[in-house]
Structure prediction request, 154 residues.
Amino acid sequence: MLAALGKLMSSRKEDENETFSVDQEGRLACAALMTRAAWLDGTLDKGEESALRDLMMKRFEISPEEADEILKAATADLDKSNDLYRYTKDLRDNFDADERLKLIEMIWEVVYADGVLHDFEATLMRRLAGLLYVDDRDSGEAKKRVMHKLGLYV
Prediction:
């Protein structure tokens, strides 16, 4: 039983390091949701900007220049429209449940990059979880993992 638990924990750790196999539109949709979350408190501080870029590079195995380009395109796209549904629909249709949960965790990491959860950010996260068909419990667990990772959770 302990061996099975150890195997489960090690496979979980490997899963956390997986990258998404996503086309350009999927990357733009992910970047748009993360960018929206980062700007929701009214400012984009250096920690949030760094988190956005680092998460994009890590998950999609892209260069800093490619990440900046996608984030710039996502920001421009968000400036034209405030519609999150089209992004979440695309991701919901093309991501499996595990990938959607990993995306929620990435967005939690952006939200907590400044160390504070604002009311608007909390509302957005509940909305995104619903639109991406991630249940509240899984989103809450993702939030706890991020808080622990960032040293914000006891």
Observations:
- The radius of gyration is 15 Å.
